[in-house]
Amino acid sequence: MTAQTGTATHPVITPHAEEMSRTYEEGIVAGLIGAAVIALWFLLLDSMKGRPLYTPTVLGTALFGSARESSPFEMALMFTFVHVLLFAMLGGIAARLLALAEHDANYGFGILLLFVVFEFGFVVVGMIFAADVMASLSWPAILVGNLLAAAAMALYFRRHHPNLRISP
To answer: Could you give the number of structural domains in the chain?
Structure first.
């Protein structure tokens, strides 16, 4: 929506648009936090095994194939870029769902259920369609990493939504 004054056109930001902008900004930040936590988790695990960046390299190779002339570092970097984008998107979705739950506490239980189903589905789909990748990375480590990322994101959201209540 724009307002025209003279020859210049100026955007008019409605309160709803401003609220949505804040919601998605919050979600992107939460997603970046989650991506960083899981990346640090695997950097720690990989470093303890003496092969830093092994996990993002394996996942990048699984995602992009053995891209010609890509070094393991480049493969890890390409995967990390996609990983950060996905977490930012998931953070945006989570923020939007939390905004709905703030207006109606009955949405809260559905959001928790959706998270459990999503987490379980992620591991099962990975075990079915990428069994070799899951075997080389250890699915429990992936599950723990995802739970750590979710916990970090939940703490961030909780700080920004102290009055959020969930009703069954």
So the answer is: 1
